């Protein structure tokens, strides 16, 4: 006859039930703390451009509007702040849609070389004197067909390339490499810019994390570019990798399946 104590079984079940509930509570608390921190961060980021545009508009209304030169200068500055605000809201929307899984990836076959050229054209005004080169490794040539969400990968390339341009000196160089690895294409964006210190490298994909807060903000970034890149690539079951050395440069790379 079995001598097992039936109360012991109930006790064990109650115990594991309590542990599961406790874990759920801990998880909820963590999410709540995260949500609060996020709202605080967003409010802070929104305040900066609003405060700036408000300042210019009020100064104009207080009389500066009479002077044609001042008027133009202040309106230009207010418009710049509002453009920044628009970019921020756009990025926030993308990020929140990505995080809640509202966006389904639309997979299709496309030429990533062609897409890269379009991104380069879009950035032409910003790159000024910087050279942007495209390099094919052995065994890869145009066209380079991959299977992914074209529109989202455009955003990834735009964010990586505009960072490479932003964080590189006047006469910097940016190289985009296409390399083959088994059934994948490795796309890398390499710059010879200021690089990223080791202690920051794991944090740059967090929203609003900036290595040098004021310097990056001056450059007009929203602080969300890399967070968006990370989410888009995760949704493709792939990831972004980074190698960097201070004052030498950085390489951001990711893989996509040939298709
Ligand atoms: P931001 O809008 O500030 O550029 P990102 O999310 O795109 O925001 O990047 C986060 C931070 O990572 C930047 O503020 C910058 O400090 C650093 N960073 C990103 N790309 C590069 C790069 N190519 N070279 C040096 N630093 C970079």
From TrEMBL:
<keyword id="KW-0808">Transferase</keyword>
<keyword id="KW-0472">Membrane</keyword>
<protein>
    <recommendedName>
        <fullName>histidine kinase</fullName>
        <ecNumber>2.7.13.3</ecNumber>
    </recommendedName>
</protein>
<keyword id="KW-0547">Nucleotide-binding</keyword>
<dbReference type="GO" id="GO:0005524">
    <property type="term" value="F:ATP binding"/>
</dbReference>
<feature type="domain" description="Histidine kinase">
    <location>
        <begin position="41"/>
        <end position="259"/>
    </location>
</feature>
<keyword id="KW-0597">Phosphoprotein</keyword>
<keyword id="KW-1133">Transmembrane helix</keyword>
<keyword id="KW-0418">Kinase</keyword>
<keyword id="KW-0067">ATP-binding</keyword>
<keyword id="KW-0902">Two-component regulatory system</keyword>
<keyword id="KW-0812">Transmembrane</keyword>
